[in-house]
Amino acid sequence: MTKLKLSFGCWDYDRIRALTDGTVKAEGIELNWLNMPVEETFWRMMRHQEFDVAELSFSSYLIARDRGFPNFSAIPVFMSRSFRHSGIYINNHAGIKEPADLIGKRIGIPEYQLSACVWIRGILHHEYGVSPSSVQWFTGGQEKAGRVEKIKLDLPSSISIEPIRDDQTLNEMLESGEIDAFIAPRAPSCFLKGSPNVSRLFSDHVAAEKEYFKKTGIFPIMHVVAIKDEILEKNPWVAANLYKAFVESKEKIYEGFHQTAALKVTLPWLVSEIERTKEIMGEDFWPYGLEQNRATLEAFVTYSYEQGLIKNKLAVDDLFVKSTLEEYVL
Description:
alpha/beta, single chain, five-stranded mixed beta sheet, 330 residues, six-stranded mixed beta sheet
């Protein structure tokens, strides 16, 4: 029987390695993996729907579902997750010592709708009382001028937001003090180069992130896997078969972590880090599926709704292909 050939846009994660190298196979499917940076994958999928299956920004996916276009459906496979207290950078001369000091300040963001920015705004609002309407937002290119939102937004009038000039970058504005702070999934180059003018808001962000997880049980989800609806209409079995394969591929990583005689990852204290992670987050610390992630998913939908990115507070049960939310039992 000829396998269904599907293009798959996704970055090179360890958790898909077994799937992309053929160790794990999705039954009945031949994946043509296209390895690209996440920004390129998102742009091409949201703007032009180029791939049959793709890693996709969770925020962009919610907006698409809310608007009814583009037409794709997700499976509860979460390619990227990250605690985000580390993603808040400040100019050291802006008088910012704690989160509350961000109120009234000028904050740069590459795009308002980025998942990382949604999470950070939600955390600042719910944990520290800094609402999105209490600051001035500036959008544009982080390292290169000219970046625009992938999706046209219709934000509440309470949100103060404007694009920077075409000859500016947020990285330069942060270092010079033209903006007071910057939030994004990628660290600005001025910080990476050790600029004395720039630091993280949370100097011990790991401790803050661990406390956040202990308090909320939330491990922020950044990216889902989306399948074009036209594929699912013709081949409804694709979603469940892909989901099973992604789960199996991730399990291969867990199996590798159990091997302590030789380290599979180039980190000297890998075993100790895994042990510490399990103490806090449990054995399956990168869970797929709906129920294991319900609190995280519901928090993100709430944040997206509160921040004006979606007009309807979507039910998380309706975000994923139904066949991936249950399985047969012998």
